[in-house]
Amino acid sequence: MSTNPEDMSLDELRDEIRSIDREIVEKIAQRTYVADTIAQVKDEKGLPTTDEQQEQAVMDRAGDNAEQFDVDANLVKAIFRLLIELNKVEQRESR
Question: What whole-number distance in Å separates Cα of residue 10 and Cα of residue 15?
């Protein structure tokens, strides 16, 4: 975005939010696809679907990234908890 948000009209700001929201959903879809692929690899190798150590690493990384971008770490971790649950539901449904 080349213009300063403070100089944008309400409609322009809402358009920007719509664009960002679409990008977020696109990234969730990409993440879900990769997580599904990981689940397939785990299945082929006979590994358990759930990996609590990996989930904790994801949560730690989410918190670190939140702090880097000055966003509430607890909120970001809650979002990532939902993403992990989404992946688990998808994996259960595909088995």
Answer: 9
